Amino acid sequence: xxxxxxxxxxxxxxxxxxxxxxxxxxxxxxxxxxxxxxxxxxxxxxxxxxxxxxxxxxxxxxxxxxxxxxxxxxxxxxxxxxxxxxxxxxx
Length: 91
Hints:
mainly beta
């Protein structure tokens, strides 16, 4: 199944937080302070008022309680509005 977001929405796949420190200590999920990052999988066409400024493949940071979670073909995705994106992570 292929998903094409509408208007100023984007489809992202969340990246998992590192669960081990540099010294090898395993951090349980409940104790992790999560940075909400994701990889852009698909983008909508945008609107005149709200253009889409990210592209497929970008790594982004987004608001903590933003978006709608969906599951497609066993994979979990998140659909966000462009306004929920707070930064593009550059490597």
